[in-house]
Design a protein that fits this description.
With 362 residues, the protein is an alpha/beta fold. The chain has 2 domains: 173 residues, NAD(P)-binding Rossmann-like Domain (Rossmann fold, 3-Layer(aba) Sandwich); 173 residues, Rossmann fold. It is built from 12 helices and 15 strands. Strands 3-2-1-4-5-6-14-15 form an 8-stranded mixed β-sheet, with helices on both faces. Strands 9-8-7-10-11-13-12 form a 7-stranded mixed β-sheet, with helices on both faces. Helix 2 links the parallel strand 2 and strand 3. Helix 1 packs parallel to helix 2, helix 5 runs parallel beside helix 6 and helix 9 crosses helix 10. It is globular. The two termini are 33 Å apart.
Length: 362
């Protein structure tokens, strides 16, 4: 199969879909891999590394799309890429369709085969291709939140870990999934007091078993959320419903109950966000302030640590890329039901009800 790896053109997206090691595995099976020149530079991989691994380097993104039967990316195609996608071309990437009607319409019109990383799902419900980026984003949420709590950036001026004689900062985490657990781990490591809310009691029991005593769990409800936002310094939105829009757990009206300088980090921004006031931002302009509340809503948080993120992503995607390349998408999705669950839009047909529900029956 002819496989293309274009350079990511989303704002400050420095990840790349395949490492040179991944290219080597594919070429070792007899596949042709076309990599756009400088695609790996942001992650620390030079064109020479790809050539040595067997890649054919192409000068433009247009050439990569034109030559390839399957496109492997990190982030969803941008409007610039929409017309480059061909009928029956397989596009394997993070799509997050439920948060973008324009993207959904464009992929329906393209009649391509769109397989979304974020909805590839094992029999037990785990999301193997979303997990590593959720781990990165969860840890970064605390790293970034701690920074934006600083007063020069309009935060409350709170040191999360506190110091002797001064209590630590308080972190509220909405959601006890992969993002939430990784965020709790980082916040606890800094010495912050952490409260985690979820409606899944199994997850709360798990968190209670593995976390230190200064990480406490409570059942999530509107009442408990409204109570805790009044005295927490950093609030992490970490709720995911696979393939669907994230629930809005904090409304605009609730901002008035928070202390000025409270920081909101919405890791669910790709799926529409956990907060009513969420709007996607970039690493170039990561924050905005509404009612004295700092919002950090970067839609590609792991893109800030591309070396780590690219390695972590290729670790899990390469298995599926090989299956798609070796077997073709139809056979691969049939033999590997977890991969089949990632089929989102196929030759103009929407395959996942969460997408049509997000856009009122599109």
């Amino acid at each position: 199969m002819k496989i293309g790896v274009p350079k990511e053109i989303k704002n400050n997206e420095n990840r790349v879909a395949l490492t040179p090691g991944g290219v080597f595995e594919l070429t070792n099976y007899g596949h042709e891999v076309f990599v756009q020149e400088t695609a790996g530079e942001g992650s620390g991989f030079a064109d020479a590394d790809y050539r040595e691994a067997g890649a054919i380097m192409l000068p433009t993104i247009e050439a990569v799309y034109a030559m390839s039967e399957m496109i492997v990316k990190v982030k969803e195609p941008t409007p610039y890429e929409y017309p480059l996608i061909k009928k029956n071309q397989v596009v394997f990437t993070y799509f997050h369709f439920a948060s973008s009607l324009d993207l959904t319409r464009a992929m329906v019109a393209s009649k391509a085969v769109c397989i979304a990383y974020e909805t590839v799902r094992d029999d037990d419900g785990t999301l193997p291709l979303l997990t590593p980026m959720s781990e990165v984003a969860g840890r970064m949420a605390i790293q970034q939140g701690a920074k934006y709590l600083e007063k020069p950036i309009k935060g409350r001026g709170v040191l999360l870990g506190g110091v002797p004689g001064v209590p630590p900062g308080k972190v509220l985490i909405l959601g006890a999934g992969v993002v939430g657990v990784q965020a709790a781990k980082m916040a606890a490591g800094l010495g912050a007091h952490v409260t985690m809310l979820d409606i899944n009691m199994k997850r709360l029991r798990y968190v209670n078993d593995v976390m230190p005593p200064h990480v406490v769990t409570e059942f999530s409800s509107v009442y408990n959320i409204k109570r805790h936002i009044k005295n927490h310094d950093l609030i992490i939105g970490a709720v995911l419903i696979p393939g669907a829009k994230a629930p809005r757990l904090i409304t605009r009206a609730m901002l008035k109950d928070m202390r000025p300088g409270t920081v909101l980090v919405d890791v669910a921004v790709d799926q529409g966000g956990c907060f009513e006031t969420t709007r996607p931002t970039t690493h170039e302009n990561p924050t905005y302030i509404i009612n004295d509340i700092v919002h950090y809503c970067v839609a590609n948080m792991p893109g800030a640590v591309p070396y780590t993120s690219t390695l972590a992503l290729t670790n899990v995607t390469l298995f599926y890329i090989l299956k798609l390349a070796n077997l073709g998408w139809q056979t691969a999705c049939k033999e590997y039901p977890d991969l089949g669950r990632g089929l989102s839009i196929v030759q103009g047909k929407i395959m996942q009800p969460e997408i049509t529900e997000a856009f009122e029956g599109m």
